[in-house]
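Wed. Picked up where I left off yesterday with Arylsulfatase A family protein. The coffee machine is broken again, so keeping this brief.
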Amino acid sequence: MKTTHLSGLLTTAGLVFGGGNSYAQQRPNILWLTIEDTSPYDFGCYGNRHVATPTIDSLAGAGIQYMRAHSVGTQSSPSRSCIITGCYASTFGMEWHRCRFATPETVFLPDYMRAAGYYCTNKSKTDYNTLCDNKAMWDSCGPAATYNNPARKKDQPFFAVFNSMATHMGRIRSYHTDQRRDFALEGLDPARLELPPHVPDIPEIRSDFAFHMEGSQDIDAWVGMFLDDLRRQRLDENTIVFFFSDHGGCLPRGKGFVYETGTHVPFIVYLPPKWRHLANGQSGRTDRLIGFPDLAPTVLSLAGIEPPAYMQGKAFLGLRRRFRKPREP
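Structure written out below (tokens, as returned):
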């Protein structure tokens, strides 16, 4: 992917907070903590009384918890292609899982963020259905990518993505029931789980559900690791945190199936007090309907960048008075 177009991107997407290289933390850092194949109902804050997810529950309580957030598909690559472009995956022929299409080089969210002076990293899930180099749009993309990279200038705002596969479908398929950890050690009892009516009530199914919930508890510790690091470095007061899954759960009627359970995702945004005005009055649980096309324009709005006109989503956070009217609740 060519990068020579970066300097011209902001001629079509106006910068509101100030010049692209005037750092001094005039703009918030933005941290995405993304997970895979996970339903909202795998976390305590969404009503699961069997799991222990205190960190995520606390993040939801202090931030905005979206109860009606949906992906555009039930597989990773179409969903992530939508997230990174702000358009429905079908717009650029990216709707088939793991396909490759020639897409314009100026449609990727990190390019706009970098042109505005952000340091952009991804560790390390791209999965974009494009012939363009998935990594070239980032300052750093791979196992070592981090906002702590010395290449980031002092006080330079960052847009950092971290991805965990602790709840990926492959984890369930990789272990037979007799190879799994003792669920009692994780505080889970498969016999007490409430199964949906469309699955058979057999030990193997109960083990699958418990194993996935165990992964959710691992995710909770993973999220806590990042929040602790932000606090240690005193970055927490200037960092907006997003937590969401790429699509719905991986159990029956989830991944690969176009049911609500396949598209419904956990979605939490925390804005520190300094930036809480960008929430436009939103707090706590909200039934506002949001979708993945809205994510890129929302991040741009939070960064003070007017979303380009071709983006099909609408900002649900940020300087709404300056930009297109957001989708109504």
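Quick read: The chain has one domain: 27-301.
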